[in-house]
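task queued by scheduler; priority normal; single chain, no ligands, no partner chains; default sampling; output format set to structure tokens
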Amino acid sequence: MPPESEKASKGVKVKVKFFTTLREIVGEKEEQIELSRSVTVEALLRQLAKRYGKEFEDYVYDELGNIRGHLQFLVNGKSITALQDFKIKLKEGDQVAILPPVGGG
């Protein structure tokens, strides 16, 4: 069994799924991202904004820098949006889905 310090330095891999407009911005339907450590969903989104630039940032954040309320975020199939729980820590193998607003009638 590896020493605790070795386990702590190991990266955490998460899968991020993109839909509709965000998929067009990113150019992928999903991406495996290796993080240097367990981070929050909020930190993951900031990292993705840096990677994909202004178009991604404008889609996810409003002019005040808040995450847009019309987007839905799922971690392992469970919504974190209603709870506004963007500080949830991601673990190895987690899947994060960023969904567009859903219209209906």
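post-processing summary
- The two ends are 56 Å apart (CA to CA).
- Strands lie at 12-18, 30-35, 72-75, 78-79, 95-99.
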